[in-house]
Write a structure and sequence with these properties.
The protein is mainly beta. It has one domain. Strands 1, 2, 3, 4, 5, 6, 7 and 8 form an 8-stranded mixed β-sheet that branches. The two termini are about 25 Å apart. The model has no long low-confidence stretch (mean pLDDT about 80).
């Protein structure tokens, strides 16, 4: 499934992410203020007549590509472990700009114990907020209904190499 910020938000993340159907959680906290909500993405194709009309308004899925001849790095949202034969470089939490901030950001994977500059906590308008699973209704992640994603939980991530 493809996930991203809501089409209606002014902040959040700007890129699309391939979300696994079986997320792995590091925290069970469901605090949900000053966050970036993760929604599922659907196709809007009916008016163009290019693909089958049955695709319109359906949830989009994605694929990953790997070639043995080139080194690969991938960030997997929703997991903190890598697939077989891949090496975990680090894991942590998915972060992005807060929903409602004027300018959206890319999604990034931030290490579970992040580094920081000491004594820089002046609160000058932070840009990195936890990305939280949205299971609240319209546009929510489809896997919420079967219990894989939990409303209000911070989504994990892992960076893998091969």
């Amino acid at each position: 499934m493809i996930g991203s910020s809501s089409y209606q938000t002014t902040g959040g993340g700007v890129d699309f992410l391939c979300l696994p159907k079986d997320p792995e959680w590091l925290s069970t906290s469901t605090s949900a203020s000053w966050v970036s909500w993760m929604h599922s993405v659907e196709y809007e194709t009916e008016r163009y007549g290019i693909v089958s009309s049955s695709v319109d308004d359906e949830r989009a899925v994605c694929a990953r590509c790997y070639t043995q001849s080139r080194p690969a790095v991938m960030m997997i949202p929703g997991h903190y472990t890598c697939p077989t034969y891949w090496t975990r470089e680090y894991y942590g939490y998915l972060m992005a700009g807060e929903d409602g901030q004027v300018h959206p950001t890319n999604y990034i994977c931030v290490y579970v114990s992040p580094s920081y500059y000491p004594l820089s906590d002046t609160n000058d308008g932070g840009r990195l907020h936890f990305v939280i699973a949205d299971c609240s209704g319209g546009g929510s992640i489809e896997e919420c209904s079967s219990g894989e994603y939990v409303h209000g939980r911070a989504i994990t991530c892992v960076v893998c190499t091969r």
